[in-house]
Amino acid sequence: MINVEIIGFAAAILTTSAFLPQVYQTWKTKDVSGLSLPMLSLFFIGVALWFVYGVCKESLSLIFANGITVISSLLLIYFKLKYVKK
Amino acid sequence: MINVEIIGFAAAILTTSAFLPQVYQTWKTKDVSGLSLPMLSLFFIGVALWFVYGVCKESLSLIFANGITVISSLLLIYFKLKYVKK
Fold first, then answer.
1. Inter-chain CB pairs, A–B, below 8 Å
2. Which residue, among A68, A44, A12, A54, has the nearest Cα to B45 in the 3D structure?
3. How high is the ipTM of this complex?
């Protein structure tokens, strides 16, 4: 029998890995022109809710993936506020 | 008692909404220079695995959110292949 959490963790690693280069690139280039603050904020709230949902469903994969992404998207919001052209 | 699926659906709507403008913008501008094909492919596989995970866990929120995002990311891959500068 396949352990469902293995599928979840593979999914978590892949989708989280696809998001982290954006954080790194924004940090290196300080180019936040392509980032929308309202969009980032909605995304952040959404990911935080996924995290809560993962806790309620006792899904380790969801908690792991969205825990990392909550922090990543918070970093992007911070960069956006810090590096935005006045 | 709070229905957990309401949290899940709120999460699904927020994170899916944050992704759709990217698809729309790419479709309108045909500018795929900022999109990485390997990254999109990893993301697509990750989202497809989340979908399978959602089916295994009988989570309607996960099935709904990742069903839409599987199609969206497949569209982005199609745009990337179609509009890439030769």
1. 86
2. A12
3. 0.86
The CA–CA distances, whole Å, from A18 to A8, A69, A86, B59 equal: 15, 11, 30, 23
Whole-model pTM over 0.90: no
| CATH of range B4-83; options 1.20.1280.290, 1.10.10.10, 3.50.50.100, 2.40.50.140 | 1.20.1280.290
More confident residue, B55 or A34: B55
Report which of B66, B14, B21 is spatially closest to residue B43, judged by C-alpha positions.
Answer: B66
Q: State how far the Cα of B15 lies from the Cα of A66, in Å rounded to an integer.
A: 11
Rounded Cα distance, B48 and B66, in Å = 7
Predicted confidence at residue A1, as pLDDT, reads: 45
How high is the pLDDT of residue A34? 79
Reported as a pLDDT band with limits 50, 70 and 90, residue A86 is: low
Contacts of residue B49 in chain A, CB cutoff 8 Å? 7-8, 10-11, 14
Which single residue is written with the structure tokens 């892949």? A14
**Tokens linked to A67:** 């825990």
Task: Verify whether the Cβ–Cβ distance A18 to B7 is below 8 Å.
Answer: no
Give me the pLDDT at residue B33, please. Answer: 83
List chain B domain ranges.
4-83
